[in-house]
C-alpha cells in the first residue's frame, strides 16, 4: 500500500475537506495549500497539543505571538539577508528555477532547455512598507518564527524575571520562497512553525540540554502522529550543511513514502542571535545571575513544522480494512469527536431527539450531524475522516432514553443513556 499511500491521502484530503490545492480555480499555485474545514480542525488540535505539552506542561516556558513583519535590521542582524540563500540553476527557455543539487545535467528537467550556471538565490520574501518602493522601505516576511523570540527575550526578562534555563515558544506563520515542488504539503511557501528558544547558562552542559530536547522531540513525534519509533531517525548535519548560526544541528527524520526526510530540526545556536541583536540594536541583552555574573545566554532551538507533522499524522492514520477506509487518528486530534444520526431521517420523533443530543454535545465536544443515506454509509463516511464515535437514535431511544454508540476502531456498538453521554466521552478522551 505504501507507494500509492501518498496519492490516497492527497485524494482523501481534497475529497473530504482537509487540504485543497492553493488557487485551484486559477490552475493552482505551486507549493501553496489551503486547509479546509476538517484540515483546520486537525491543525488546531495538533497546535493545541503542542502548546499544552511544551508551554503549559513545563514550568519554565513562556508563550508569545510575535508579528510576522519586523524591523528589516532584524534580518540583517540574524544573517538571513546575507546567508538565507541556496544555489539554484535557471532554465534559459522556461525560466523555471531548480535547486542546483537536483540538476543532474545542464538540461531543464521540464522543457529540456539549457540551464544557467549556479546562482545564489535568496529565499526571503521581500515586501515594501508604506508608500514608496525603495530600499529604505524594504521589509521581509519572516522565514522563521525564532527571531520574534530573540527580539522579545528582553521583554520577557523585564516582565517575568525568569531563572535560567527557561524557554520561550511560539506558533506562527513563516514564509520561504521555495522552488522545489511536489510531495504535497511537505514543502510550502508559507507554513506554521512551532518553535522554542531554550536559554541556558553558557557555563552549563549544553549537550545535556540538547540530548534532552532530542528525546522530547522524538517522544512527541510518536505521541502526536502515532508513528512507530522504527520509522524515526536522527541525522546530524555536517560542517557544510549546518546553518551559519549553529554549532550542532540534527534533523529528526521520518520514513515518508517518498523517502527518509526531515520532519523537524534541533539546533544549538549558541549566543549567535542575541549577540548579533545586541550589536545591531545597541541594547544590552545580557542576563544577570543572582550572584552577579553578566553574560549572553546560549540557546538550544527545537523547531517543529506543522505541515510535516500533519502529513505524517494522516499517513500513519490512514488504513484500509474490511472494505472501508478509516483514519485511525488519536481522538484528541480528530476533527469531530462524535457524529449524531437519527436512524431514519423521515421520522420526526427520531430527528427531534437526535437534534437535542446534537445540541447538548456541541458545546462540549466537536460534533457532526448526518442524516443522509443509511446508517452503514454514514459510519463509512465518518470512518474516513477519523470520527471516533457515532451515536444513533433509534426506536428504543424513545422508550428508554438510551442510544447506540459505535466505536470507529472496533466497529462495535454499545447502548449508553443519553444523560451519561458527556461523561462517557470525557472518560474516553482521557
Ligand atoms: P529543509 O531542509 O527540508 O528545507 P530546513 O532545514 O530548511 O528544511 P528548518 O529551517 O530547520 O528547515 O525549519 C524548521 C522546520 O520547519 C523544518 O524541520 C520543517 O518541519 C519546517 N519547514 C521548513 N521549511 C518548510 C517548508 N518550506 N514547508 C513546510 N515546512 C517547512
Structure, explained:
- With 430 residues, this protein is α+β, with helices and mostly antiparallel strands.
- It folds into two domains: 4-84 and 123-316, Bira Bifunctional Protein, Domain 2 (BirA Bifunctional Protein, domain 2), CATH 3.30.930.10; 336-429, Anticodon-binding domain (Rossmann fold), CATH 3.40.50.800.
- The protein has 13 helices and 23 strands.
- It has helices at residues 2-16, 37-56, 72-77, 80-83, 146-150, 153-160, 206-225, 272-281, 306-317, 348-361, 375-384, 395-400, 421-429, and strands spanning 19-21, 33-35, 61-64, 85-90, 97-99, 119-122, 125-128, 138-141, 166-175, 190-200, 232-236, 248-256, 259-270, 287-288, 294-295, 298-305, 318-321, 324-327, 338-342, 367-369, 389-393, 402-407, 413-417.
- The chain is globular.
- The model has no long low-confidence stretch (mean pLDDT 95).
- The structure holds adenosine-5'-triphosphate (ATP).
Shape: globular
Number of strands: 23
Tell me the count of domains. Answer: 2
What's the pLDDT, averaged over the residues? 95
Using the 3D structure, state the CATH architecture of the largest domain: 2-Layer Sandwich
Annotated CATH homologous superfamily of the largest domain: Bira Bifunctional Protein, Domain 2
List the total number of helices. 13
The major beta sheet can be summarized as: 7 strands, mixed
| Largest beta sheet: strand ordering | 3-9-10-16-13-12-11
Structural class: alpha+beta
Stretches where pLDDT is under 50 for at least 5 consecutive residues are none
Proportion of strand residues: 25-35%
- The top-level CATH class of the largest domain is Alpha Beta
- Helicity level: 25-40%
**Ligand identities:** adenosine-5'-triphosphate
Distance between the termini: 32 Å
Compute the gyration radius: what is it?
Answer: 25 Å
CATH third-level topology of the largest domain: BirA Bifunctional Protein, domain 2
